[in-house]
């Protein structure tokens, strides 16, 4: 029995002018599943994330999302001039949820930061605000573009714990885009590898971690 | 390329032959068109190459006109006045450009507009510029034994002026600094970091465009015989932008085509508006509407302008023969 | 002394009208990054509308309200032209608003002719500490105060206001959370039209307005907005009051013919000083 997919991408092509950033990409995320997407810089991971969020128009192919999708964009992308509370409230634009208290229950640290301007927070705190802002839309699936980017390992581990907990308790599906393959394999049962706009490998995390090519490129087994 | 080698001499020959066959009212349009084209070539250079919007090009036109008029009225030979007009306009551009060109985008647009408004207001109040009435009874243009008697003479003078302006612009664009300027229009930061003296180049382009406007202003003052602040309204500066944008920024022929298209369109509508039975406000209303609608439509739907669009059409029709 | 006080109060009233124009510029620029050249046009449209409606016998209040709404619609239409098409750069948008301003000339001349028109305002005057001030001037000051307070509340306290600020603060992030940035831009233009319209109905009783009054209005408004770097309403208000008082004092003490030069000169100095303070690199995308 395979649960119905919440995200289904078929033969997706996205181009920036003449340059093709995604070339016939097909992937899916099932209900309540955590899936990783790996790939080197410039592979097209963020492009895929933006296409999933409906921010980029596909040149061809389809993106189907069942339920609500929320994006934690690369580089947090907060509203720096607004307070943390306002950032969270605006996260509820789609869902109509204005009151962040449910998010404060999950991420209590945010309640302490509520009145601070988002622009002055540390990187870890900003990522937590971006996380909370995404949760405000009551998503069925969360796309996280580079959870660990620029964060200390213990901060990343904390955020990863929250992610796993939300997945377990609420059945939140997650597409995790990561440079840190170890973290991705640990959190996700399944993974895709994207290179130069094309999917090159996919499979169970355990199997991929054992694949010498993947291990060499993403687990620091060899210098390429 | 091949098209250009035939079309340019052809256009030059036809326009040079035209004054001999046109009647006086058509010649008046010919002169106005040529003068507008001279200013527009400068505006197009400034916007397309230096990436700067000037809403005050009419001020340089005015400086040229007043300079030539004042010199001629004080007994100096008109030729000297005509030569001084572009020099004075360029010098004025250098002086105001030094502080103003530290501004960019909409700031520069408003600053140049402010410059023109200040200049107009001063010209309307000072005694030596004749106040609101302006300067009258400017002698006709003359050089050596030649005296410009009728419109035809001014048509030839305008033709020569425009040819000079286009030739200078062509050489500037083809020169090494000209190619560096191209980079400037795309990204000032990138241009600066690759060692191009951005500030000096921008100032030079502003001065050059002012010189073109000044030259046109000089011819204009001899042609009409009077100048007043009312001859250089803010709308005239907007009109040059419309012409430059319509033709296509940064192309010499675009400026000329834009000036021609708008001038002829407005003149044609003017005829229509002056037909019996039309309300008295019709000429003004129609020309405002044309400027506005053409400007908006071109910016939104044909952002590269007419000439590049036509070029693209032509090259699409015969893709094989590019050489 | 009482002459000075009279000039000061009159100057504040003039400054308030400038402030309303400028606040519209700031609202639009903050949300869309576009400097709206047609901002003065909104005031002209509202002023002319009000004078017509009052002339038709509609009561005060209703006439002004309808005129301000007409200006808001004009703002919305301007926005549609300027930012309605995806991919229009701010500088292209500026040129489009320039076109809208000229187009408005054509429409206004057809509807109202090319002669200046006035409208009756609040009659009478009051004496404050020996200085006579017209009631209309007091009304202008009061309405401006209310308008700025309402703007502050709207942007600082309401959800919609915060969404508008979010578009200004990070348009990409605004799209990420699902805000339609283009729609918000149109809303900003409508709000700008409303503010410009408010200025128009307040100014018309003080000095007659004609189709080409927009140039003076926009230049003064832009000068004031420049004080606040086109983004900060409170400094813009201060700049507008300064301009209004400086111009009125100049006129009062016999330099009336140099009013415009004073405003423009001040604007140029402020812009050039500000440009000198900013590093050149950071201003690229204007
Ligand atoms: N807005 C854009 N315009 C043009 N090209 C773009 C744009 N955004 C991305 N690209 C190009 O598309 C390709 C994919 O970029 P993308 O940001 O999706 O990669 P990525 O996998 O997220 O890389 P990274 O790991 O560095 O975040 C790159 O070659 C990039 O240069
Ligand atoms: Mg990326």
TrEMBL record, chain A:
Family annotation (CDD domains): ABC_TM1139_LivF_branched
UniProtKB keywords: Amino-acid transport, ATP-binding, Nucleotide-binding, Transport
GO MF assignments: ATP binding; ATP hydrolysis activity; branched-chain amino acid transmembrane transporter activity
InterPro entries tied to this protein: AAA+_ATPase, ABC_transporter-like_ATP-bd, ABC_transporter-like_CS, BCAA_Transport_ATP-bd_LivF, P-loop_NTPase
ABC transporter domain: residues covered: 7-221
Keyword Cell membrane: no
Residue ranges of coiled coil: none
Listed SMART domains: AAA (SM00382)
BP GO annotations: L-amino acid transport
One Pfam family matching this protein: ABC_tran
PROSITE patterns: ABC_TRANSPORTER_1 (PS00211), ABC_TRANSPORTER_2 (PS50893)
Sequence similarity: Belongs to the ABC transporter superfamily.
Name recorded for this polypeptide: Branched-chain amino acid transport system ATP-binding protein
Organism: Nonomuraea wenchangensis
UniProtKB/TrEMBL annotation, chain B:
Transmembrane segments: 29-51, 58-76, 82-101, 108-128, 148-168, 204-228, 240-265, 285-307
Lineage: superkingdom: Bacteria
MF-aspect GO terms: branched-chain amino acid transmembrane transporter activity
Keyword Ubl conjugation tagged: no
Membrane-protein topology: Multi-pass membrane protein
Record keyword Transmembrane helix present: yes
Primary location recorded for the protein, binned into one broad class: membrane
Stored CDD domains: TM_PBP1_LivM_like
Subcellular location: Cell membrane
Keyword annotations: Cell membrane, Membrane, Transmembrane, Transmembrane helix
GO CC terms: plasma membrane
InterPro entries the UniProt entry points to: ABC_transp_permease (IPR001851), LivM-like (IPR043428)
Protein name, per record: Branched-chain amino acid transport system permease protein
Source species of the chain: Nonomuraea wenchangensis
UniProtKB/TrEMBL annotation, chain C:
GO molecular function term, any single one: transmembrane transporter activity
Compartments, as annotated in UniProt: Cell membrane
GO process terms (BP): amino acid transport
Pfam family, one: BPD_transp_2
Major localization listed first in the record, in broad terms: membrane
The family this protein is said to belong to: Belongs to the binding-protein-dependent transport system permease family. LivHM subfamily.
Matching InterPro entries: ABC_transp_permease (IPR001851), BCAA_transport_permease (IPR052157)
Transmembrane segments: 6-28, 40-59, 65-84, 91-113, 133-155, 184-202, 222-246, 258-276
GO cellular component, one term: plasma membrane
Keyword check for Cell cycle: no
Membrane topology according to the record: Multi-pass membrane protein
Domain of life the protein comes from: Bacteria
The protein's name: Branched-chain amino acid transport system permease protein
Keywords assigned: Amino-acid transport, Cell membrane, Membrane, Transmembrane, Transmembrane helix, Transport
Entry coiled-coil feature ranges: none
């Amino acid at each position: 029995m395979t649960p119905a997919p919440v995200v289904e991408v078929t033969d997706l092509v996205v181009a920036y002018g003449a340059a093709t950033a995604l070339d016939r990409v097909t992937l899916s995320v099932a209900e309540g599943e955590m899936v990783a997407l790996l790939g080197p810089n410039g592979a097209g991971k963020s492009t895929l994330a933006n296409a999933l969020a409906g921010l980029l128009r596909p040149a061809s192919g389809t993106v189907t999302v069942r339920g609500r999708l929320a994006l934690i964009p690369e580089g947090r992308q907060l509203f720096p001039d607004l307070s943390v509370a306002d950032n969270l409230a605006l996260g509820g634009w789609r869902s109509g949820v204005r009151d962040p208290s449910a998010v404060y229950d999950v991420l209590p640290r945010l309640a302490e930061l509520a009145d601070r301007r988002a622009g002055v927070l540390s990187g870890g705190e900003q990522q937590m605000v971006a996380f909370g802002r995404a949760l405000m839309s009551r998503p069925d699936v969360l796309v996280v573009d580079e959870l660990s980017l620029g964060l200390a390992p213990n901060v990343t581990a904390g955020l990863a714990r929250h992610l796993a907990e939300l997945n377990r308790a609420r059945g939140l599906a997650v597409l995790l885009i990561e440079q840190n393959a170890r973290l991705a394999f640990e959190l996700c049962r399944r993974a895709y590898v994207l290179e130069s706009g094309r999917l090159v490998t996919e499979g169970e995390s355990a199997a991929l971690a054992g694949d010498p090519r993947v291990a060499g490129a993403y687990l620091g087994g060899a210098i390429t | 390329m091949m098209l250009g080698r035939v079309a340019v001499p052809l256009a030059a020959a036809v326009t040079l032959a035209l004054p001999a066959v046109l009647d006086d009212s058509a010649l008046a349009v010919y002169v106005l068109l040529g003068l507008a084209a001279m200013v527009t070539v400068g505006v197009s250079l400034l916007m397309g190459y230096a990436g700067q919007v000037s809403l005050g090009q009419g001020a340089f036109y005015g400086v040229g006109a007043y300079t030539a008029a004042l010199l001629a009225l004080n007994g100096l030979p008109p030729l000297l006045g005509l030569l001084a007009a572009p020099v004075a306009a360029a010098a004025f551009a250098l002086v105001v450009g030094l502080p103003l060109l530290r501004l960019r985008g909409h700031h520069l647009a408003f600053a140049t507009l402010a410059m023109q408004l200040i200049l107009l207001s001063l010209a309307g109040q000072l005694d030596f510029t004749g106040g609101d009435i302006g300067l009258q009874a400017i002698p006709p243009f003359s050089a050596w034994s030649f005296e410009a008697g009728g419109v035809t003479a001014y048509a030839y003078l305008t033709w020569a002026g425009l040819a000079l302006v286009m030739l200078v612009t062509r050489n500037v664009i083809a020169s090494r600094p000209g190619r560096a300027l191209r980079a400037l229009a795309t990204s000032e930061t990138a241009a600066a970091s690759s060692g191009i003296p951005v500030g000096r180049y921008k100032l030079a382009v502003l001065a050059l465009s002012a010189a073109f406007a000044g030259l046109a202003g000089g011819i204009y003052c001899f042609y009409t015989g009077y100048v007043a602040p009312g001859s250089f309204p803010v709308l005239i500066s907007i009109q040059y932008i419309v012409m430059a944008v319509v033709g296509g920024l940064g192309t010499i022929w675009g400026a000329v085509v834009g000036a021609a298209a708008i001038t002829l369109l407005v003149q044609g509508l003017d005829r229509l508006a002056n037909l019996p039975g039309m309300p008295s406000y019709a000429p003004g209303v129609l020309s405002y509407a044309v400027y506005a609608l053409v400007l908006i439509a071109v910016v939104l739907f044909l952002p590269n302008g007419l000439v590049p669009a036509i070029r693209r059409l032509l090259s699409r029709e015969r893709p094989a023969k590019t050489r | 002394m009482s002459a000075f006080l009279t000039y000061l109060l009159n100057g504040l009233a003039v400054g308030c009208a400038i402030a309303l124009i400028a606040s519209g510029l700031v609202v639009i620029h903050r949300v869309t990054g576009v400097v709206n050249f047609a901002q003065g046009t909104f005031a002209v449209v509202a002023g002319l509308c009000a004078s017509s409606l009052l002339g038709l016998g509609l009561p005060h209040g209703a006439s002004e309200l309808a005129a301000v709404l007409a200006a808001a619609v004009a703002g919305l239409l301007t926005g549609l032209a300027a930012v309605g098409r995806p991919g229009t750069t701010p500088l292209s948008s500026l040129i489009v608003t320039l076109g809208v301003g000229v187009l408005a000339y054509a429409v206004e001349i057809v509807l109202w002719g090319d002669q200046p028109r006035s409208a009756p305002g609040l009659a009478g005057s009051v004496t404050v500490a020996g200085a006579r001030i017209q009631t209309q001037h007091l009304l202008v000051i009061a309405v401006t105060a209310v308008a700025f307070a309402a703007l502050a509340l709207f942007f600082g306290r309401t959800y919609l206001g915060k969404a508008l600020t979010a578009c200004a603060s990070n348009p990409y992030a605004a799209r990420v959370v699902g805000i339609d940035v283009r729609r918000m831009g149109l809303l900003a233009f409508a709000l700008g039209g409303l503010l410009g319209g408010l200025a128009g109905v307040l100014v018309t009783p003080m000095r007659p307005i004609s189709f080409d009054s927009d140039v003076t209005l926009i230049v003064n408004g832009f000068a004031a907005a420049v004080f606040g770097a086109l983004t900060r309403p409170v400094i813009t208000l201060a700049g507008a009051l300064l301009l209004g008082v400086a111009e009125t004092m100049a006129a009062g003490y016999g330099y009336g013919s140099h009013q415009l030069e004073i405003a423009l000169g001040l604007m140029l100095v402020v812009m050039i000083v500000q440009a000198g303070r900013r590093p050149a690199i950071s201003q690229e995308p204007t």
